[in-house]
Amino acid sequence: MTIRTALTEKFGLEYPIVSAPMGSVAGGRLAAAVSNAGALGLVGGGYGDSEWLHTELSTARSETTRPWGVGLITWHATHEILELALSYEPPAFMLSFGDPRPFVRAIKEAGCTLICQVQDVEDGRAAKAAGADIIVAQGTEAGGHGADRSTLPLVPAVVDAVAPTPVLAAGGIADGRGLAAALMLGAAGALIGTRFYAAIEALGHESAKEYIVAAKGRDTERTRVFDVVRQHAWPRPYTGRAIRNRFMERWGRREDDLSEALEEEIPRFRAAVRDGDFETAMIWAGEAVDLILDVAPAGELVRRIGAETEACLQHASELLRKT
Fold first, then answer.
1. 251-283 burial, b for 16+ CB within 10 Å, e for fewer?
2. For the purposes of burial, counting CB atoms within 10 Å of the CB of 158, is it exposed (0-12), middle (13-18) or buried (19 or more)?
3. 93-142 pLDDT, tens digit each
4. Which residues lie across from 221 on neighbouring strands?
5. Per-residue pLDDT at 323 exceeds 80
6. The pLDDT value given to residue 75
7. Against a cut of 0.85, is the pTM above it?
8. Which of 58, 120, 153, 229 is the most buried (most CB within 10 A)?
9. Cα-only R_g, the chain
């Protein structure tokens, strides 16, 4: 039994799954492992560290012969970083958080499939008009950066607004039940992040992965404090969902006070990141942490989610009865 959607047909996938391009976490090994298992793995370009990108894109390209891709933060991207990423010939290129239009022409001319992530219906229409081949509708349940619309009502609204452009669902999806639900909402697949953070191949600190396994959805919260202390000027309405820790509890809703204390707080924060002190450093994670019970190989996760999805869809068909 196989699932066929516009996403699987576009890239020749076995499963309608894309691993999210999580900055500093989704490196080349993770992207390659996901792609080798029959899904689409993306390298997280983050804020555009060229040395990091050289290493991770080279790894992705060398460790798989199947389609893979890279993602950049649109508002922070530069044409130099874009050209660097394109030089590794990724079949897919994802832009998130901002106006994609300055980069569309170069991506298209390189022969890449353009994936644009949006957080509301209006931006979905704008992404389609800009030339997106696939649109990701990301709900607020997602880990890391996002906005304030919930996945369940957002996905079908974007599907309707941009049809026939394929839409992927993101935010709060960590198993086959979530992927099956996304397909029933009209999505062609799902972009999954936090579940792949807790993969063996992910670059995140090992203790961060254990935090994710132990956390509950209520332990996560959207915040700006980690962007303030890292001096990343994220535009509104974007905030980041992370596992609540002492730093967040101290500075939450006191961003102006934190800005005034940066001379002291920045060195402490950088030391915490270096030392893996996650009572100060952040762990980006979504509400679906409730469903993450282990750290496993990425390929196993792809196959597990795929099998669960097939079982859910089979069960759904069995609910129909002739009257």
1. beeeeeebeeeeeebeeebeebbeeebbebbbb
2. buried
3. 999 999 999 999 999 999 999 999 999 999 999 999 999 999 999 999 99
4. 242
5. no
6. 97
7. yes
8. 229
9. 19
Amino acid in the structure at residue 136: V
Domains of the chain: 6-203+295-318 (3.20.20.70), 206-275 (no CATH)
Contacts of 262 (CB under 8 A, 6+ apart): 228, 229, 231
Q: Which two tokens stand for residue 158?
A: 């974007």
Q: Residue 190 phi/psi, 5° resolution? A: -135, 145
Given 54, 76, 79, 145, the catalytic residue = 145
Rounded Cα–Cα distance for residues 259 and 64 (Å)? 44
* Locus of tokens 């691993």: 19
Catalytic annotation present for 54: no
In three-state form (DSSP H/G/I as H, E/B as E, the rest C), the secondary structure along the chain is CCCCCHHHHHHCCCCCEEECCCCCCCCHHHHHHHHHCCCEEEEECCCCCHHHHHHHHHHHHHHCCCCEEEEEEHHHCCHHHHHHHHCCCCCEEEEECCCCHHHHHHHHHCCCEEEEEECCHHHHHHHHHHCCCEEEEECCCCCEEECCCCHHHHHHHHHHHHCCCCEEEECCCCCHHHHHHHHHCCCCEEEECHHHHCECCCCCCHHHHHHHHHCCHHHEEEECHHHHHHCCCCCCCCEEEEECCHHHHHHCCCHHHHHHCHHHHHHHHHHHHHHCCCCCCCCECCHHHHHCCCCECHHHHHHHHHHHHHHHHHHHHHCCCCC
Q: Tokens 């460790």 appear where?
A: 63
Residue pair 100/73 in contact (Cβ under 8 Å)? The answer is: no
φ, ψ for residue 191, nearest 5 deg: -95, 120
